[in-house]
Amino acid sequence: MKNLIISSLIYLLITGCAKPSPIEPITLNKAHQKLIDICKKDFDLTVKLFPFENTLWVYIPMEESFLDIKSTDEGPRIVDQFKETRTINYLDGWYADSSFHLKYDITLSKAYGKEYGFTSAFTDKYRKEQQYILLSITKAYENVEEEIPDFFVIVAADIVKGIETQMILNFSDLKRVMTDQFFHEEYTRRNIMDYPTGHTKIIDDKEGKHLELYDLTWPDFLAKQMVHRIKNKYQRSAFPPSEDTQQEILTIVSETVHAYEFTGFETVQLQDLHNETTYTTNKSDLKKPEEKEDSKSRLINIKFL
C-alpha cells in the first residue's frame, strides 16, 4: 500500500508541477488555512488542524468505513505444516532521562497457517484519500516564511463505527520522497503507520475532541520509529532477522539515530522480558550503519495507475 501511495505522489507532483510559477512566501497560519482549503476544494475532504510548535495534527472525520473486508476463494482452512519464525510477543519503546528504552519479548515459535476465509485492507477510496492528504501537505507548506513543524500526525477516523488509523511522518522525509525515487524504500521504514484502533468515543466526533493531543519531540519521534522499524523487520521484511535479537535491535537503533544525525541522548537500554535481562550501551558504542545498496543503486519500477 505504501508503494502505491508514494508512486502516485511522485506522479502527481511531476505532472502537476512541471513548470511551477513563482510563489510568494506565506505565513504558517495561512499555510494551515491553505491545507484546509486544498483538502476541501480539490478533494472534498474536511480536515481539522491542531497546531503545536513542533507538530501539526491533521484530523479527518469520515462517515464511511476506510476498511474493506472481502471473502477469499479458498475459504477457511487450517494448514498442519509449520514455519519457524521469530515472533514479537511484546514490544514498546520510549525516551526518558537521556536514554532510549526498548522493552521486548521476541521468541522463536512455530507458526501454523490458519485462514478464516476473508481478508481486510484499506478501501481503494481511502488509499486515494491518503495520497491526496500527503500531496495537499506538500502543496500547502511548500513556501512558508516561518519554521514549519517537524512532524505531522494524520488521524483518519470512521466516526460511524468508531475506528481510526494514525500516521506519523517527518515533513523533510515527505518532501524528499517526492523527488528522490531512491529514498522510496527507506521512507517506508521512517513513515510510522499504526494499525487501526477503535473506541466508542470516536463515534460522532467531527471535531477531534477524543484525541489525546501533544507536541511530539525528536526523541519521542525516534523512539516510535525504532518500534516501527523493529515491527517492519520482524513482520514484513523480505530479509528475516538473525538469531541475535539484541544485535538486531541495536542495529535498528543505530540506523534510526544516524538517519537523522541525532545525538541528543546518552545511552540505549534494552530490556529482554523473555530472557529476563537488561543491557545498556552508550551512544558512542553504536556503530554507524553501512549505506544500504538498495537505497542507492537499485532500480525501482514505478507503476502509474
Helix and strand sequence: HHEEEEHEEHHEEHHEE
Q: pLDDT average, as an integer?
A: 88
Structural class: alpha+beta
Strand content: 25-35%
What is the overall silhouette?
globular
**Model regions low in confidence, pLDDT < 50 over at least 5 residues:** 293-305
Number of helices: 7
Count of discrete domains? 2
Give the CA-CA distance, first to last residue.
13 Å
Estimated helix fraction:
25-40%
How would you describe this structure to a colleague?
The protein is α+β, with helices and mostly antiparallel strands and 305 residues long. The chain has two domains: 1-66 and 123-210, no CATH class; 79-113 and 216-289, no CATH class. The protein has seven helices and ten strands. Strands 1, 2, 5, 6, 7 and 8 form a six-stranded mixed sheet that branches. The chain has a four-stranded mixed sheet with strand order 3-4-9-10, sandwiched between helices. It is globular and about 55 Å long. Mean pLDDT is 88; it is low at 293-305.
List the helices and strands and how they pair.
Blueprint: H1 2-16, H2 28-43, E1 48-51, E2 55-62, E3 67-96, E4 99-122, H3 124-140, E5 151-158, E6 163-170, H4 171-179, H5 184-190, E7 192-193, E8 197-198, H6 218-236, H7 245-259, E9 267-272, E10 277-282
Helix pairs in contact: 1-3, 2-3, 6-7
